[in-house]
Amino acid sequence: MGSVAERRHTVIIGGGVVGFCIAYFIASHPRYNRETHAVTVLEASSIGGGASGKAGGVIATWADPSCIAPLSYRLHCELANKHDGIHAWGFRNVFCADVDAMGEAVGHATFEDSHSHFHSHAVSTPSSSHYPPDLDWITPDKITSYTELGCPENTAQVHPHLFTTRLAELATERGANYILGSATKLNYTKDGTKVKSVSYARKGTTELMEINASDIVIAAGPWTTNILPEAPIKESRNHSIVVRPRKPVSAYVLFPKLHPKIPQKRIPPEIYSRPDGTIYSCGPSDTDVPLPKSTDLVEVNPEICNRIYGDVSSISQAMREGDIITRQACYRPFVVGRARDIGPLVGPTGIEALWLAAGHDSWGISNGPGTGKVISEMILDGKASSADVSSLDPRLMLQKRE
């Protein structure tokens, strides 16, 4: 690694939560000098336009992977305290639970495979508990069991889009900048051992431009393979809705197992009450719609959104009487051939100066800060010191595909 005084340019491909967390923590690192170190985020469409703006937003110490989740939760709390996250991005501590419920669901009645849930379960063992009396916006006689996954001491939530866009502002205030443009290819030295630049086209144009870089970090989520084809990253589309009930509801994140009248079928929606007075809910995944070129081209199927509403409103009068104010869809990235409890790919790729931070599956919002922190340490200190993320080393997976 060169001296601190030498000129550097870190380019981050992907303007979602992970990309801007990396930019923020590089620009907040003690070794960072904005006079000699440029940080550029390259985003194809809009800041937080994908899952970073359309996910549920639960964060937890018990999330997976366990090597980074506690660090990331602590960083979330520190960011909220430092930057007024309660008001800026809806940070608050919550209860989180698995619930079994008898509903009159009308759609998405299918068994789920290992990568079809929008949100993975906790890595810790849930504890059974009594149904809380303040969870009054779920019809009590519909619930057959309530199993606590998290409590306000270890679980919180943020509004993903507000969090991502505010982190972008904080990163730019510290010296980072961003460009709306699509990365088209990485450029290497003649011997192919080191990356030296990235080619891109500004949004709305076809003219190719080039950015020289001392380090390039790929944080493009499901679009990672567009720029690094050998990365074992796949994608899955999820629909979600946002409902505004007639009155505020208590702070809970619920992962229901919804049993409709057809006993052999199961529906796994998710339900998040939010501090802005809305309720967010997402449904199962579908993999039959190919990944578009950018987040602004993601197709939304209104019928699927209406089915989600029918499913969750069958156990919640508050949602049934509320108004759907948003119907949306996004793609989430997951790592092929890796156990869910191990997590994303975070670290060096084996090509000098090229780093990978992708494949966060359902925990991108939760683990964004932790990812940003360890990547900043790897780039500026030569190694990660805040957490042992050796199990997330991309080289372990990239070598398998050679």
Overview of the structural elements:
With 402 residues, the chain is an alpha+beta fold. It contains ten helices and 19 strands. The chain has an eight-stranded mixed β-sheet with strand order 11-10-9-2-1-12-19-18. An eight-stranded mixed β-sheet has the order 6-7-5-14-15-16-13-17, covered by helices on one side. Helix 1 (17-27) runs parallel beside helix 5 (160-173).
What's the quick description here?
The protein is α+β, with helices and mostly antiparallel strands and 402 residues long. It is 23% helix and 30% strand. Helix 1 packs parallel to helix 5, helix 1 packs parallel to helix 9 and helix 3 crosses helix 9.
Task: Using brief descriptors, characterize the structure shown.
single chain; 402 residues; alpha+beta; 8-stranded mixed β-sheet; 30% strand
Main sheet: strand order = 11-10-9-2-1-12-19-18
Number of β-strand runs: 19
Indicate the multimeric state: single chain
The N- and C-terminal alpha carbons lie at a distance of 27 Å
Radius of gyration: 21 Å
Query: Percentage of helical residues?
Result: 10-25%
Strand content is 25-35%
Biggest sheet details = 8 strands, mixed
The secondary-structure element order is EHEHEHHEEEEEHEEEEHEEEEHHEEEHH
Quote the average pLDDT.
Answer: 89
Molecular shape:
globular
| Number of helices in the DSSP assignment | 10
List low-confidence stretches. 105-128, 262-266
Structural class: alpha+beta
Q: What's the SSE blueprint?
A:
Elements: E1 8-13, H1 17-27, E2 37-43, H2 51-54, E3 58-60, H3 69-83, H4 85-88, E4 92-93, E5 95-102, E6 127-128, E7 143-150, E8 155-157, H5 160-173, E9 177-188, E10 195-202, E11 208-212, E12 215-218, H6 224-227, E13 233-244, E14 252-259, E15 270-273, E16 279-286, H7 302-313, H8 317-320, E17 323-335, E18 345-348, E19 354-358, H9 364-381, H10 394-398
Parallel strand pairs: 1-2, 1-12, 2-9, 5-14, 12-19
Antiparallel strand pairs: 3-8, 4-8, 5-7, 6-7, 9-10, 10-11, 13-16, 13-17, 14-15, 15-16, 18-19
Helix pairs in contact: 1-5, 1-9, 3-9
